[in-house]
Design a protein that fits this description.
Blueprint lengths: L2 H15 L7 E5 L1 E2 L2 E3 L3 H11 L6 E6 L9 H8 L7 H8 L5 H4 L3 H9 L3 H9 L17 E5 L2 E4 H10 L6 E6 L5 H14 L4 E6 L7 E2 L17 E2 L7 H5 L5 E4 L12 H27 L2 H11 L4 H6 L3 H8 L3 E8 L7 E7 L2 E7 L7 H8 L3 E10 L20 E7 L2 E7 L12 E6 L23
Parallel strand pairs: 2-3, 3-18, 4-7, 4-11, 7-8, 12-18
Antiparallel strand pairs: 1-13, 5-6, 9-10, 11-15, 12-15, 13-14, 16-17
Helix pairs in contact: 2-11, 3-7, 11-12
Length: 468
């Protein structure tokens, strides 16, 4: 690309970081019976059966570029502290050390060495680094940290996603993980080991976040920072940049879930059932929309929309025009599994007014401003989608260009500390926020037991990550 392309991008981002970022107007939270569907047992069984009518390959899309070191942040603080061995979290970690899968995976020499340490600092350093035959957990990607134990076997999140994914169906299942390029060899080795133990067919590939999407970094005077090699300093622009990766996948049906949201295999069945239900809804709704597209059936459009709480009143009214109706139903489609909000940090589902139209969107707190908007935001009953089943083909069986359904104006302005200085940069619209702003969207309430993220290593002590 010519240099003026990069200069234009830099100037555009410079103009954006000087402001607070774009804001949305939320009208009300989506709640059960008003934007979020709650299926009864009979309906769940129906859609689970519909799942088996899907003949095209399924592909899991799993963002897995997160560093395992973030799981151990509180231990890193302990290492740097002048008053060690005081933190409650550290004491919990030390006291429950033998309950972690990574401990059970150590050889006897490493276990003996752990016992010999006289301070928490020595023990933590041994676990996080490779010094003196250390465990080296701090340098692993999160996806390869041992999460779960099965008698003599120990399983990472990567292994669990593969194992549980292939149990979804008798057909071949594909997997796509986005990772850091420095970890590709380790993931390939883990994949080789998985395939040697599991003979069922699966296809797995990897990609990296495109460096072309990285954001320029600006100082407090709004000037671009330079790196040590005298080039502009850039940082990854958030998970919204992964829309580029999704857009390159050939499969029609994509199942999206974060790498750390996985349960012990003995507790995996509820999540596997939810996948089948979400895919069954996806298959059912896509066929209904196809029929509407072919017959230009306005009355059926209203009926399907009411059944699934799919389209706004404004879109229904505009669909009296056949041209608008055809483009409305021929958009990428996502079925979002929503859990109840139990206090975890993050956004939720809302009705949003934008350019005179009301639509259902996933909104983060930074996207709104003002006391009244904050009051509405805090009244949300449900959390960000934790499982998404998506159809990315049009009715001509061609892959949709997903970038055309992103609202690029919904970027984030991020402020962080870099080498002791506050810096700012732009993150692309969030993957399930602005990046999917114009998708046809259905929200389904799913059981909270399907959402068991591992943000710190202590989360692995929760029942969801222990054998039943």
């Amino acid at each position: 690309m010519p240099n003026n392309h990069y200069q234009d991008a830099l100037n555009l981002q410079k103009a954006k970081v000087s402001g607070a970022g774009p804001k949305l107007k939320i009208i009300a939270p989506c709640t059960k019976g008003n934007g979020i569907l709650k299926l009864n047992t009979t309906q769940q069984a129906y859609y689970e059966n519909r799942f088996h009518e899907i003949s095209a390959p399924l592909c899991f899309f799993i963002p897995a570029s997160g560093s395992g070191s973030r799981m151990f942040d509180f231990l890193q603080v302990e290492l740097a502290s002048s008053k060690p061995e005081k933190a409650n979290k550290t004491n919990d970690f030390i006291n429950r050390l033998k309950d972690f899968s990574f401990y059970k995976s150590l050889n006897q020499a490493q276990k003996d060495q752990l016992i010999s340490f006289h301070s928490h600092k020595e023990l933590i350093d041994f676990i996080l680094t490779n010094k003196q035959n250390g465990v080296g957990l701090g340098s692993l990607p999160k996806g390869l940290v041992p999460f779960h134990s099965y008698d003599e076997r120990h399983s990472s999140a990567f292994y669990e996603h593969l194992s549980q994914g292939i149990s979804l169906t008798d057909k071949t299942v594909n997997f796509h993980f986005t990772i850091q390029d420095t970890h590709e060899e380790a993931f390939q080795k883990a994949l080789y080991n998985f395939k040697s133990e599991n003979k069922k067919g699966l296809e797995v590939d990897f990609s990296f976040q495109d460096p072309e999407t990285d954001a320029y970094v600006f100082d407090q005077q709004n000037e671009p920072l330079m790196s040590h090699n005298n080039t502009y300093l850039r940082r990854p622009s958030g998970h919204g940049a992964l829309l580029t990766n999704i857009n390159k996948l050939k499969e029609q049906y994509l199942l999206v879930k974060n790498i750390d949201n996985v349960q012990h295999g003995s507790r995996a069945e509820p999540g596997i059932k939810v996948w089948r239900v979400l895919c069954g809804i996806l298959h059912k709704v896509k066929n209904e929309l196809r029929s509407i597209h072919e017959d230009l059936d306005y009355q059926k459009l209203k009926s399907v929309s009411k059944q699934f709480d799919l389209f706004s009143d404004e879109d229904i009214e505009a669909s009296k025009d056949n041209g608008f109706l055809k483009q409305l139903v021929n958009r990428p489609l996502r079925i979002c599994g929503m859990v109840l909000n139990e206090g975890k940090a993050g956004g939720g589902p809302f009705y949003v007014e934008h350019n005179g139209n009301v639509s259902k969107q996933i909104v983060e707190g930074v996207q709104i401003t003002g006391e009244e908007q904050k009051r509405i935001f805090n009244s949300s009953t449900h959390f960000n989608p934790v499982m998404m089943a998506m159809d990315t083909y049009d009715f001509d069986e061609k892959k949709i260009d997903l970038t055309k359904f992103s609202n690029d104006d919904q970027y984030f302005v991020v402020h962080k500390n870099f080498e002791g200085e506050e810096v700012s940069f732009i993150e692309k619209p969030g993957l399930w926020n602005g990046a999917m702003f114009s998708w046809n969207t259905i929200f389904i309430e799913i059981p909270s037991e399907t959402f068991t993220p591992v943000k710190t290593v202590l989360d692995l002590l929760q029942p969801a990550h222990q054998p039943r």
